[in-house]
Specification:
Two copies of one chain form a homodimer.
Chain A (H helix, E strand, L loop, with lengths): L6 H21 L6 H8 L3 H5 L5 H25 L4 H17 L3 H4 L10 H27 L8 H13 L1 H4 L8 H16 L5
């Protein structure tokens, strides 16, 4: 957590979180130290301690930053979309965009949370569950509209999220395929996997 | 690696690998020691060293055991299936069955391989690539038969594997849903996500 409230300090804290998220993702949380992070940021370890209390609190800040991005760019706008199918399409495309676009704070939400302490973990699991339930309820709406195929709702929700979250494991944003194209394809596959044929 | 060739010793080695795989999966490779594994097996650390050279060599044995299972139960039987759609259905269902059934040696194939040394990692990546290419080639066959939707082949292959591999993250084999039912649903979703409507 930033130790003073100025905007400059907050921006520096954000830069630290995003760099640390990338290092945690690449090397694994356990395999890297605050020294590695200070080095990547070209600051001293004492300088880093001005912004973070410990490696664990840094991880907690990063996960929350990622969850904030999902709230702001996926969940909140989706709440304003009345039609369930259109809402699901929005959720898939925009969550995929965050994962494929290389936002490591978003990617880390589904990794490493075992490294948090009990209270931090409970808070993160609560936020993840809220998101899961929102997606699940959207799928239930589609079922009520008789648009859904005959699959179990829980399996459908997790498998849908698996397609999206797996992007961070294989897609490289600097390769020849654009983020837009890969998200469109994942969105197309995910909707086809869930929805009945329209005819 | 087992240090003698008797069957009893090989069976004990397998038991060690599967227990260790479960512990690595649950706690994370970095967070657990050979002591934890010896304790779970109720043997001494010296007893464990009779079967394994080091934590890293143990991980390598486990990953290879998992890859052997995929070869034996998915890849090899699938090679004998002429029809591409039927072959893909077999691959999805049986790979899903290994992941959902709680075979931690199979699950660990897609985790932790950064912890292997260079030569071990290259060998594992080669085996994973061979599997990926086999699935990808099956999808290309479906494209040639004009059965595939308009999605990028690489995206299709990775996203399909994501649906299957994600099972190990959420599905618990002792819950109320059977392994068979969850694998059927994932299979149904995966095929729908890829194949054109039949009419």
């Amino acid at each position: 957590m930033a130790k003073n409230g100025t905007q400059k300090s907050q921006e520096k804290a954000q830069e630290i979180y995003l760099t640390a998220a990338q290092i945690f993702f690449t090397k694994g949380y356990n395999a890297c130290s605050l020294n590695d992070i200070a080095e990547a940021l070209n600051i001293t370890k004492a300088g880093l301690y001005y912004y973070v209390e410990s490696k664990q609190s840094l991880l907690f800040e990063i996960v929350n930053l990622g969850l904030d991005s999902v709230d702001r760019e996926v969940l909140e706008p989706a709440r304003n979309i009345g039609d369930a199918e259109e809402r699901l399409r929005f959720i898939i495309f925009n969550h995929a965009r965050l994962c494929a676009g290389g936002n490591h704070a978003v990617i880390i939400i589904s990794h490493e949370i075992n490294e948090l302490n009990f209270y931090q973990r409970e808070e993160v699991l609560k936020r993840r569950r809220d998101y899961f339930d929102f997606v699940r309820n959207t799928i239930i709406e589609l079922q009520n509209e008789e648009k859904l195929t005959e699959v179990d709702i829980t399996t459908a929700t997790f498998t849908l999220l698996g397609m999206i979250l797996w992007l961070s494991r294989w897609y490289r944003p600097n390769g020849k395929m654009s983020v837009k194209k890969v998200c469109e394809d994942v969105c197309e596959m995910a909707l086809r996997s869930l929805l009945r044929e329209k005819n």
